[in-house]
Amino acid sequence: MSERTFIRDMQPAQYIEGIFAIQNCQLGQTKTGKPYIKCLLADRSGRTPGRMWNATEELYQSLPTNGFVWLEGQTQPYQGEMQVIINRIRSHEPTEQELKDLLPVTQYNVDEMFAEVIRILQTMENPAIKSICDRYFEDGQLMDLFCKAPAATTLHHAYLGGLLEHTLSLLKLADRIMPLYPELNRDIMLLGLFLHDLGKCCELNWDTGFSYSEDGMLIGHIARGVVILEEKVRACREMNIAIPDPTLRVLQHIILSHHGQLEFGAAKLPATPEAIAISILDNLDAKMNMALAATRDENGDRQGDLGGNFTEKIWALGTRLYRPDPTKLSQEHES
User: Fold this and answer.
1) Residues 6+ positions from 322 with CB-CB distance below 8 Å
2) What pLDDT, in 10s, does the model give residues 255-302?
3) CA–CA distance, 189 with 19 (Å, rounded to integer)
4) Please, are residues 21 and 7 in contact by the beta-carbon 8 Å criterion?
5) What's the first-to-final CA gap in the chain, in angstroms?
6) If you ran DSSP here, which 8-state letter would residue 208 be given?
7) CA dist., res. 85 & res. 82, Å (int)
8) Which end of the chain has fewer CB atoms surrounding its CB within 10 Å, N or C?
9) Whether residue 303 has pLDDT greater than 60
10) Distance CA 190, CA 290 (A)
């Protein structure tokens, strides 16, 4: 194709040919027992479901579960979403130039977001906590990764700059709710939110698509985050800056417990007021990012008439979502 059609610009019944990222590629079965391929297709503008009905297990085995493909097909509105019905598909190794169109990226300015993170964290008052934070800011390599990393491979904030965007959202959320709970330790809250996902800088790869690194497969971002924290505290102590053991333990606990439940990957259940608040805010921001990305555009509207008001089931949320803002849905359309 002479000019790429981005996912956000796709129109109903449009012929599509080109290179896309493929995510969570699976082989399903129709009600009549015939195999079909189901997947998510992505580029830097967004994601959309893909289906290939005349599939074979041999073709499925030739495709990456998460990677890149060339495909030919046609768009089709279905139950409130635009999906791509795939006619032909094959694995593809993208060039560096092609990757610029394939990897999703935050819509916000990275430098401005990072400056805002620094501004908020500089309002902390406890000397020990500020000193720990300073050791992170002095680590230019880690901060560079922090500004580039996605927050996940396929779920919330799964785009370049997503980890930074997620962290800033949490810091802003905390600043707004803490006046309602003045007993919370503000400095512990802010630093805990900054640190909770920093291990993802080591857990994820994003140079040629989003995947888990060896560190991510063997260690994971929770354990790696604790290790990095211990390194920064050790650096403080080598500078004769006192970091009380209870402060270190509470920050370690926040990282270990921020997933909230053991079945969701937490190493410990949240056991301090700050750890409970951080786990809840983290869950809130992640779920709202997924829900809004699936239902609303940047103006708060559902995108076009896509054949229904509900999304397909979003497994991370456990349900199908109602797409429109009801105040913008006409009575005529409702009927």
Assistant:
1) 295, 309, 310
2) 999 999 999 999 999 999 999 999 999 999 999 998 998 887 665 555
3) 43
4) no
5) 40
6) T
7) 10
8) C
9) no
10) 23
- The shares of helix, strand and coil residues in the chain, as percent rounded to the nearest 5, are 45, 20, 35
Share of the chain above pLDDT 70, in %: 94
DSSP per-residue codes, 130-142: HHHHHHHHT-HHH
Q: Is 90 exposed, middle or buried (0-12, 13-18, 19+ CB in 10 A)?
A: exposed
Does 206 or 120 have the greater pLDDT score?
120
Coil, strand or helix: which one is 223? Answer: helix
Distance of alpha carbon 49 from alpha carbon 83, whole angstroms = 5
Q: How many CB atoms lie within 10 A of CB 254?
A: 28
CATH superfamily entry for domain 7-100:
Nucleic acid-binding proteins (2.40.50.140)
Separation between Cα atoms, residue 271 and residue 318, nearest integer Å:
27
Of 199, 100, 219, nearest to 149 by C-alpha is 199
**Side chain identity, residue 111:** D
